[in-house]
Every structure is written in C-alpha cells, then in structure tokens.
Amino acid sequence: MRFTLLKGSGSGPRLGRLETAHGAVETPVFMPVGTQGTVKGLMPDLLETTGARAILCNAYHLALRPGVEVVEALGGLHDFMRWPGAIVTDSGGFQIFSLARHRKVTDEGVRFKSPLDGATIDLSPETALANQVRLGADVRMPLDQPVPYPASRTETAEATDRTTSWARRTREAVRREGLEGVFGIVQGGVHADLREKSVSEITDLDFAGYAVGGLSVGEGPERMDAILRHTVRLLPADRPRYLMGVGYARDILSAVSAGVDMFDCTLPTRNGRNGTAFVRGGTLRLKNAVHASDPTPIDPGCSCPVCAGGFSRGYLRHLFLAGESLALILVSLHNVWFYQDLMAGIRGAIREGRFEAFWASCRE
Amino acid sequence: MRFTLLKGSGSGPRLGRLETAHGAVETPVFMPVGTQGTVKGLMPDLLETTGARAILCNAYHLALRPGVEVVEALGGLHDFMRWPGAIVTDSGGFQIFSLARHRKVTDEGVRFKSPLDGATIDLSPETALANQVRLGADVRMPLDQPVPYPASRTETAEATDRTTSWARRTREAVRREGLEGVFGIVQGGVHADLREKSVSEITDLDFAGYAVGGLSVGEGPERMDAILRHTVRLLPADRPRYLMGVGYARDILSAVSAGVDMFDCTLPTRNGRNGTAFVRGGTLRLKNAVHASDPTPIDPGCSCPVCAGGFSRGYLRHLFLAGESLALILVSLHNVWFYQDLMAGIRGAIREGRFEAFWASCRE
C-alpha cells in the first residue's frame, strides 16, 4: 500500500492517491459499506459503474459468519465477493461500541456473545489483525475502543489508553509479520487534550495511515467538526486520514475541508432500502403519496442508471409499496452513485483550486 | 401483432416469430413473470442480457396496485417499468382460481375482495380487456374461468361454458374497439370432450392466438401431457399457442414436442428467492451445508454473469444465510438465464431438425 499526496498539506482539502494491490484509489474517497461481504443489493459490476474503487467490510461480522476459514477457503474476500477493487476491513472495534450489551472488555481484548447463536467470540489486537490478514483486506484496522457520547472523562481516558495499548500490540504484530496497510486509530472522545494525547501516542507507532474513530456517535455536527479539525491537523501530512463511519454530504464536505481523505458510511444503502433517496440539497421520501403519479426521476440532473434510465418516482414508490426487491436495488444504486458523484465533484474542485466555491454551492 | 410460423405444422415442434410493437419474439419462447411490474430482483437491462424478449405481467394485480390510472399516467406499462420488450398481460382469470376464497363468480363477471385493503373489485370480460389495453400490453388475455383439480364434470362444464360466453363478449369488444393482439383461452379441465368443445367454440371466434389454460393445477405431468396433446393438435396451425403457467424444463420440452409456442412461469424467480438453482438435469439447494466452502459456480458449464462471473456456491450460501438481497438477485438471474438458454437450445434444435435428440439429451 502506498499513499501519495498530490495536492494540499497537513490541513485543508487534499488530493491524493492510495495505491493498493487491488487498484489505485483517488482521494478524498467514499467507501460504500459491505458489512457481510456484499454492498447490499448491488452486484459488484454495478457497484463499479458508480465509480466506487474501495469498499469497507467488517471482519467481526465475517468472522462470525461465514467464518474466516470459509472466506479463506474461497480465495479470500476479493474472490469470495468478486470485488476487484480495494477492500478496507474494520476490526470489530466499532462493535465494542454498537454491541455494548453483548461484550466484556478487558486489557487483554474483548469477549463477544454472538447474536447469531450465543457462541463466545474472543477478539484480541492480535487475533483481530490476523483475521483481517486472512480475509485478504488491503487496508486493516487495529482493534480499538470507541466510547459512546456522552461518556465521562475517566471512561474516555481509560478507553483511549486501552486503544493505545492495543495499538502497540498491533504494531508489534505488524513488525513481527512484516505486514503492510495497517492503520492506527485515534480516539479521545470529545476531549481535545485526550485527542492530542491519542494522536501523539498512535502516530509515534508509525502506521500506514490514521483513522479518527469515535465521532458521529451523538455529539452533534458542531462538536464533531471542532474535535475533528483539532485532531486532523496534528496528523502527519504524508499519511492518509480516514474518518470512520461518516456520513452525510455536509459532514464529508466539512471533513474534507479539514484535511480528511477517506470516508465510509452505510447511509446510501440503508436509506436506499427504506425508500429515502439522496438529491442535491436533501433527501426524497419515495414512499410518500405525493410521488404516486410523478413521472420525474429521483433527480433529473443525475446521470446514474436509475435517473438516466428513466425510472420514475411513481414507479419507485410502487415498488416500495409492493415490497419489491427492485426498489432497494434501484434506490441504493442511485444513492451510492450520488456519493461517488459528490466525491468526484470534491476531487475535481480541489484539483482546480475551487473547493471552497464547490462546498458553498453544495450548501445552496 | 403478427405471427409467422417458420417451421413445423399444427402438431409437433414448431419454430415461429411473434412480431409486436415492442420487438420480435422468437418462439418457442419462455416469458419470465413480472406480476407487479417487475421481474423480481432483476433490473430490466439485466433481464435483457438473459435473452428474454417478452415477459408476463398481471393486470389484476396492477389494477389493484398501483392502479391502471397510475400506470397510464406514467406512460403505460413499458414506460412504467422501463421494459423495452414485449409484454403479455394476464386478465385476472387465474386469480379466480388462486384467490378462490376471495371472489364470487357470476355470468356477468367476477367480484374480488382485495387482499390489500378489503375493497371490492369487479371484473367483467369488458373491463378486464379494457384494463389491459390501458396498461398498454402487447398481448392481452380474455377473462376466463379455470377450474381446480380435481373438479366435477358439472363444475368443469359450467366454467368452460362461462369461459366461452366471456370469450364471445371479449371478441365483441375487440371488434368494437378494433383491437389487436387478443388471445382466446381454451378450458375444459381434464375432460377430452370438454376440451374439444372449448377449442371449437373459442377458435370459432378467431382470436390472434390461443392459450391453453387450467393445466398444471395438480393433475400431474402424465395427465397434463395427454390433455395438452389432445388439445393442441385441434388448434389452428397459423396462430401462436400459449401454455399458461408452465413450468419445469421437462414440461416445456414435452409441450414443445406437442406444438406449443409460448410459456410463462414464476419458477425461475421464485426458486431464485428461496435458494434453489436450476442446473442441467435438476436443482441445487444452495442453503445446504455441503456448499459452505465450495468454490464451484452453480453450473460450471453455464455462461450467465453469475456462473461465468465466478460467484461460488459457498458465497451464495453465505448470502442466503445472512439474509442478503444479493442472494436472490444472483440466483434469480442464473435461473432466468437457465430458462432462456433452454429455449435457445430448443429453437436451435428445431431449426436444425434435431429436436428429439435435444430432448433426449436433456433427460440424461
């Protein structure tokens, strides 16, 4: 894995290229989420037509089902899901946060009770990394411990210290195994000084890239923005920066302006499934009765196969009301396209030195 | 609508061409079913890649939801669902059979109680036809009354007489409106003499094509085959013959050998959704544990985008177990492809005068 910063510096909008064994990825990049080894509803070649070149899968979920050994036997994650582009995997750290009632965290690692069959799953920094290596991910994330919002300073400090301790063990394993493409994750909640401490400790370990974790968990856009800006400018300029699990177009634009290079979010496919389509400046609730006889596509200015293909809002509404799977396919496709289109717009604007104007035009 | 018999005669395998306002359809043809205005899980352009050139939609279901007026407002069924090929619509006659507990049949027509909201829907031969014309179907079916199996001779005779009486009213409406592409439907259950009477009465009305209805309803393959052969050879050679709702490859091959030109069935997509894939000589239950680590595609000899694209049985099993929508997309696509491939094989074999050998090879 190799990252080249093509334009920009340690803060402010940046243009870059992440070269992986599965192709080059232009940054800033948005990675659609394929938690269980599929970006929900989208055949890989259709996903590729959106311009997506990297996706995020979840090593915790894949280890649970079908199991790392099954994916390995089927040729690794790329072969398994027939995705030719880059794959980033999350370690399971986020599940410490999202499955809080089903896990116990110790300094050694985390013990989950599987929601599928009640089985016990032990994850340590070492096994979390080994799982991702066996899956064949291009970029691997260390086990970390995000904290919810709100959380006490003590709780946040403890989780941030544990994240550092786990990062050290991860770094040791990387050295031992001679691995590439392993990122570090910065935590620290909404406390500026804890973020500073985390950045200092994690960047000291010299990872291939740096993620900012534990944001967009309920702290609100203003607080997120402030903490993010404070954190990002402390990161080394020559490594990719990844804001995990974010988000809406407005959050991405703001984070790009702060110097973030990589994003992932389930929003385009999750909203696609429930009938919410992204359009410039907002969303469209396709189940609403107002669309019943509307021949307009989701967005007349969009060139995705759904809008350019002439599928009307009225037809999409019908598909949702009739419980037809084509509904989620078409709207997920449009939404993923919308995000890739946004990122292409962002990259073009940075390249041409007009990011601020582009950002402003998105707020109109 | 124009039908040209290219090879064959009144009985035995035939090759033909059905020209419609939405393209030419080579026969024998298999029409995937898009009951509610979508062939479940398949984007229209993907459906086209399977070789499908005609599909069957259901005017009863579409009249219920979203309503004929909505489809009309959205440009008719072709525009509505963005399907450029031919569309055949069923009238609602089959729902007299399948929704037996929710309807009342009189000589005037049929009254349904909507399973969606309890509303009353009245269908007469005239309104059933008018709905299909408004939907913009290329081939329209008259309202008929299939009988279940077993049914008494009296019940069968009564329903067959009513089918004739409704066919006369349909024919009258066709003449009045100057319509094209309206078929007649032959009923008569499993009674050879009632089938003869029905053929005689229906063909006297001079429809654009003839369907054989009321088969594959539980009478078993041998009885179906016997009645079908007896019926088909009585139909005029110069009109297309359509065996409604059939079926498995073995049924289609046998019916082709009897002189049938058109087929439809929900099997490829229904089985696709529940994890059963069609392969030469049988089916594959993809949820079975035996496939867990199997890197083989569904059918190594198949050139569909799923098999040729390298999606493994192990991956497909994972998708089904994980409840992922890509599962039904991929297996429906393979199954529809399997049927289109079968029909292409049948047409090629008839063209080259080796249908019997082809049929025998399919039984191996």
Structural notes for this entry:
The structure is a homodimer of 364-residue chains. Chain A has 364 residues and is an alpha/beta fold. Chain A has two domains: 2-265, TIM Barrel (Alpha-Beta Barrel), CATH 3.20.20.105; 277-364, no CATH class. In chain A, 41% of the residues lie in helices and 18% in strands. Chain A has 14 helices and 16 strands. In chain A, the strands form five sheets. In chain A, strands 4-14-13-12-11 form a five-stranded parallel β-sheet. A three-stranded antiparallel β-sheet of chain A has the order 1-2-3. In chain A, helix 11 (267-274) runs antiparallel to helix 13. The two termini of chain A are 38 Å apart.
